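From the methods appendix. Each design record in this collection lists the tokenized structure first, followed by the designed amino acid sequence. Records were kept in a plain field format so they could be parsed without special tools. The example shown here is representative of the layout used throughout.

RECORD:
FOLD TOKENS (206 positions):
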């Protein structure tokens, strides 16, 4: 299949974008909101032009977000109504079942809930406003930013790290004592137990 990249230079309402995942890390969304607020009003247009949302065009012309879910939700919460998108692939000719099969094959969809369980595609939210919080996704994002592991091109890499931490740290500790949970997670990220994960940068014996 030929992959096209078609910039859509007219605004698209954020609420019309369809997510391809169920969760985000809300702490990460809040951090993006904070950084966005630091932009002077006169530079907002330039920022949005440089941060187009990649989408796949699906059945009935729906636009399905395949990256930058955190940014899209952050912008919505900051009362930004429209964004620019880049159409990575046009699959609008497919029926619904075939569409999700192709997205799954390309690792363009991640239908896992906040407990790390795979769900049916019908359980994906219809809008970014329906994205749920997975505190372990926030933890994974924090650990990457602090050097616990390297940024990697593996699709949904930080969700893999989130599941690694989910099995080793209690949810209530992440929710109530995030900083101490992050210190523990950083040590876990460097351990040999994490060596199978994308971007692992721990030490190995030679």
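DESIGN:
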């Amino acid at each position: 299949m030929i992959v096209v990249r078609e910039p859509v230079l007219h605004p698209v309402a954020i609420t019309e974008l369809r997510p391809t995942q169920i969760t985000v890390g809300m702490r990460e969304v809040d951090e993006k909101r904070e950084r966005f607020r630091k932009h002077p009003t006169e530079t907002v247009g330039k920022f949005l032009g440089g941060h187009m949302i990649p989408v796949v065009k699906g059945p009935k012309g729906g636009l399905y977000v395949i990256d930058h879910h955190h940014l899209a939700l952050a912008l919505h919460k900051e009362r930004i109504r429209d964004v620019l998108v880049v159409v990575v692939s046009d699959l609008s000719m497919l029926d619904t079942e075939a569409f999700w099969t192709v997205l799954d094959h390309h690792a363009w969809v991640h239908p896992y809930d906040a407990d790390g369980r795979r769900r049916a595609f019908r359980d994906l939210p219809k809008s970014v406003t329906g994205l749920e919080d997975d505190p372990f996704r926030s933890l994974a994002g924090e650990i990457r930013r602090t050097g616990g592991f390297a940024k990697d091109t593996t699709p949904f890499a930080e969700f893999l790290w989130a599941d690694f931490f989910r099995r080793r740290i209690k949810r209530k500790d992440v929710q109530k004592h995030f900083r101490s949970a992050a210190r523990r997670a950083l040590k876990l990220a460097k351990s040999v137990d994490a060596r199978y994960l994308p971007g692992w940068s721990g030490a190995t014996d030679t």
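APPENDIX NOTE: The mean pLDDT is 93.
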